[in-house]
UniProtKB/TrEMBL annotation, chain B:
The keyword NADP does not apply. InterPro entries: Cyt_c_biogenesis_CcmB, Cyt_c_CcmB_bac. This is Heme exporter protein B. NCBIfam families: ccmB. The lineage of its organism: Bacteria, Pseudomonadati, Pseudomonadota, Gammaproteobacteria, Alteromonadales. The chain crosses the membrane at residues 28-47, 105-125, 137-160, 166-188, 200-222. It is found in: Cell inner membrane.
Automatic annotation (TrEMBL), chain C:
The gene is ccmC. Residues 8-184 form the Cytochrome c assembly protein domain. Keywords: Cell inner membrane, Cell membrane, Cytochrome c-type biogenesis, Membrane, Transmembrane, Transmembrane helix, Transport. The lineage of its organism: Bacteria, Pseudomonadati, Pseudomonadota, Gammaproteobacteria, Alteromonadales. The chain crosses the membrane at residues 21-44, 56-84, 91-113, 133-149, 161-181, 201-224. One of its GO terms (molecular function) is heme transmembrane transporter activity. Required for the export of heme to the periplasm for the biogenesis of c-type cytochromes. One of its GO terms (cellular component) is plasma membrane. Belongs to the CcmC/CycZ/HelC family. It comes from the Bacteria. This is Heme exporter protein C.
Length: 211, 227, 246
């Protein structure tokens, strides 16, 4: 069987406030691949991720997932997509456990005992029932990152997932990335970290700041 | 996707908003207090004659109800927009309009329902006849969800804007006019001991149309705001 | 529908279409406006009851009709923009909105000016006046929503959604206001029966309506052309056009 591209970006153009961020950008991502998007601030990394996730529309071009344009059946695409952006979607008033459960239900997953175990795995022991706003930035991010262990989406789109994490957290995340890739998933992420030592098959895309 | 998971989504979104409102009780209490204060202002402004108040009561109660639903609307999507939950709702395998329906329903539970329950007391404050009490409660019961639906469209359109609050009232209040007209007229008619079923039926029809059409408009507006 | 619309999804084709249509509209406007106003204001007989003050009808009625006509065309453009995701239709919505708002304002002001001698008050809460006022609010809502967004692409789509919501509500609002008015009718208002109008007044009125329609068309087309150019100003075809000095 031919290995098909999981994700295909077909000559996508995006302009924002008069400025062309990228023009006719094309690339593809196969199952088991990880791609890092690099570039200076304001180069359009986040905009690209938001377009690929389907939140924003490109000015031109199309995004295909498993051979289908994502706009054709967005809900089906969304079932295979895990997006964690700058704004992680964690509510500060709710506790960590409530946040995880709410996210699971909204994404059609079963709520089970794993949520507690994973929260403690990520170093949130004893903090499951405290409102998230009282936690530190790194701990809040972990509450969002628990999702990576809890769902079976094929495509992960992560905007700066390592922000505010300590060394142990970064290592845990990298191990989880490898597991996901081994299971045939794909990851698209932006980060300023150097990932080449950890992932041999790392693809990189460099966005230049255009005037 | 199994049917029970649609229900699970609806209930989860609904209970999240209601739980949050109960944790910060001001969200429930403030619109009610506002409602009460607006109603208090009228006798002070126009004079305390019972006949005059009785004549104006339906209008005053409903204008106060319109204004107090507006209070909660700005918050309806704002927190979810700011913390990224809205993106997570869009990127869920379920239709966004279902989550939106749950959120609107939660908004009604938080702001509309307490008003419906307190309505008899407010009606008494305004010297409304006892036969008009039923009509007041019924119009509020059918009318306030309608206000939540229509208002949520405005809230969804303006959630991405820095100063969306005032703009939202500009967009939404003209759309509230039919609700205001039919509801006040139902109360008026009932205080004359006439049948007001017709007005209620029209309000009900509007609610039925709104509950089908509004979630679609709200979810497409949210997608625009998020992009 | 799609086949017919598709070519005009391209900005350049839409711009050319505007250019072709504009002269026709311009000619209609100039001819009909001259004929209609001279006929209506100078030659049409004076009303036996209202004397010459009725002549404001030749401005009031056409602008009122066009205020609603403009809103429906705006809503149609908005539906096209949302369903087929055509950017030019969004631009059309934005081009029509201020013109329609201006027509509504003219209708309201002339209505008030007419009301003073007829009803003895500048403003009467008559059903038609009230719905016209609400129509103005709806127009202003679309405009202020559009201008509140920094990103003009989102602004266009948001304005389209609001226009569609508004057009669904408009009949309900109109109906409810009419009904409200019959319930609360305080002062008896002398209503105009349009069918009873004499043909010597009807003809200039019709010509004026056509003239106003042409005028709305011309102004919208000019605005649409500007919007398209503004939106596409980095494209080669626009640069070429500007280079030619057209």
């Amino acid at each position: 069987m031919r290995i098909t591209n999981l994700l295909e970006i077909k000559s996508v153009t995006c302009t924002k406030q008069e400025r062309c961020l990228f023009e006719s950008l094309s690339f593809s991502l196969e199952a088991g691949q990880i791609m890092q998007i690099e570039g200076p601030n304001g180069a359009g990394k986040t905009s690209l991720l938001r377009i690929i996730s389907g939140f924003a529309r490109p000015d031109e071009g199309e995004i295909h997932f498993e051979g289908q344009p994502i706009s054709d059946n967005y809900d089906e695409y969304a079932a295979q997509l895990l997006f964690i952006g700058h704004k992680t979607g964690v509510n500060g008033q709710l506790t960590a456990y409530e946040n995880v459960c709410h996210w699971l239900r909204v994404h059609g997953c079963q709520v089970d005992e794993r949520a507690y175990d994973l929260l403690s795995l990520l170093g949130l022991v004893g903090l499951e029932d405290v409102p998230v706003r009282t936690l530190s930035a790194g701990q809040q991010r972990r509450v969002a990152l628990v999702r990576l262990w809890l769902n079976n989406a094929k495509l992960w789109i992560l905007d700066e997932p390592f922000t505010a994490l300590d060394k142990k957290g970064v290592r845990q995340l990298q191990i989880r990335f490898s597991e996901h890739l081994a299971q045939g998933g794909a990851i698209l992420l932006t980060t300023h970290q150097d990932l080449t030592t950890h992932f041999a098959a790392l693809k990189t895309l460099v966005l230049e700041y255009q005037l | 996707m199994a049917q029970h998971s649609y229900w699970q989504l609806f209930f989860s979104v609904y209970s999240k908003d209601v739980t949050l409102a109960f944790r910060q009780r001001s969200e429930i209490v403030n619109p009610l207090l506002f409602f009460l204060i607006v109603i208090t202002l009228f006798p002070l402004a126009i004079g305390p004659e019972p006949a005059l108040l009785k004549r104006m009561a339906p209008g005053i109660i409903w204008v106060a109800a319109l204004l107090s639903t507006m209070l909660g609307l700005d918050k309806l999507f704002r927190d979810d927009y700011n913390d990224g939950s809205l993106e997570q709702l869009i990127a869920s395998p379920y239709p966004l309009s279902l989550s939106v329906l749950a959120k609107v329903f939660a908004h009604w539970t938080i702001t509309g329902l307490p008003m419906v329950l307190m309505a008899p007391m407010f009606a008494l404050l305004m010297n409304l006849e006892s036969q008009a009490l039923g009509a007041t409660v019924l119009t509020l019961l059918i009318g306030t969800p309608l206000l939540s639906f229509i208002g949520a469209i405005g809230a969804a359109l303006t959630v991405g804007l820095q100063k969306g609050g005032i703009l939202m009232s500009l967009l939404v209040l003209p759309l509230y006019i039919p609700v205001l007209i039919f509801a006040t007229s139902a109360i008026d008619t009932s205080s004359m001991s006439l049948a007001y079923g017709g007005q209620l039926a029209i309000l009900g029809a509007m609610l039925a149309v709104a509950s089908v059409c509004a979630p679609i408009a709200i979810s497409s507006a949210l997608k625009v705001s998020v992009s | 529908m799609w086949k017919w619309l598709h070519p005009y999804a391209k900005a350049e084709r839409a711009y050319q279409l505007c250019n072709t249509l504009m002269p026709y509209f311009a000619v209609i406007t100039v001819v009909c406006l001259t004929v209609g106003w001279v006929w209506g204001l100078a030659y049409a007989p004076a009303d036996y009851q209202q004397k010459d003050s009725y002549r404001i009808i030749f401005i009031h009625v056409p602008s009122a009709i066009l205020s609603m006509g403009a809103y429906s065309s705006m809503a149609i453009a908005a539906i096209i923009a949302l369903v087929w995701q055509i950017r030019n239709a969004e631009l059309a919505v934005i081009s029509i909105a201020p013109v329609g708002a201006a027509m509504t304002a003219i209708a309201l002001i002339t209505g008030a000016a007419w009301g003073k001698p007829m009803w003895g008050a500048w403003w009467v809460w008559d059903a038609r006046l009230t719905s016209e006022l609400i129509l103005l609010f709806l127009y202003l809502g679309v405009l202020s929503l559009y201008h509140a967004f920094e990103d003009k692409k989102s602004a266009g789509r948001a304005a389209c959604i609001l226009a569609v919501v508004g057009v669904i509500n408009l009949p309900i609002i109109h109906f409810s206001v009419e009904w409200w008015n019959t319930l609360h009718q305080g002062a008896t208002i002398t209503k105009f029966d349009t069918s009873a109008i004499d043909s010597s007044m009807l003809w200039p009125l019709l010509i004026n309506i056509i003239a106003f329609a042409g005028f709305v068309g011309v102004v919208t087309l000019i605005r649409l052309k500007n919007e398209i150019l503004q939106c596409e100003r980095h494209r080669p075809w626009v640069r070429e056009l500007v280079g030619r000095g057209e």
